[in-house]
Design brief:
Strand content: 25-35%
Largest sheet: 4 strands, antiparallel
Helix content: 10-25%
Number of strands: 6
Distance between the termini: 28 Å
Order of helices and strands: EEEHEEEH
CATH superfamily: Folate-binding superfamily
CATH class: Alpha Beta
Radius of gyration: 15 Å
Length: 107
């Protein structure tokens, strides 16, 4: 079972208490974007086997959105951080690199 710690209230919650929100750190397309850019923003998502950054909502807790770094193959969680963070924090990246030296890095 996937267990994530909410960075806001500090509660360790199982996935049944959380709502998934898809891929994190998406580059949003603005009003001046092309149809292809907007289509890519709406529909093109990464689905890696390995390290992935995701959005989660603590539905049955504080109700806030947060971000998580985890391995999709093993459900290993590298850490969680506030949703307003524009990129993974250095400590999250260090935790990933320590456990997964083969990891290429954040794009």
């Amino acid at each position: 079972m996937l267990t994530l710690t909410c960075p806001y209230c500090g509660v360790k919650a199982e996935e049944t208490e959380l709502a998934p929100g898809g891929e994190a750190h998406l580059k949003r397309s603005g009003p001046g974007s092309s149809d292809e850019e907007f289509e890519s923003y709406l529909f093109a998502r990464k689905n890696p086997k390995g390290v992935h950054f995701e959005r989660w909502r603590h539905s049955y807790g504080c109700g806030k959105w947060f971000l998580a770094a985890r391995c999709t193959a093993t459900l290993e969680v590298f850490g969680t951080y506030p949703a307003q963070t524009p990129a993974p924090t250095p400590d999250i990246l260090a935790a990933i690199k320590a456990k997964r030296p083969e990891w290429e890095g954040y794009e």
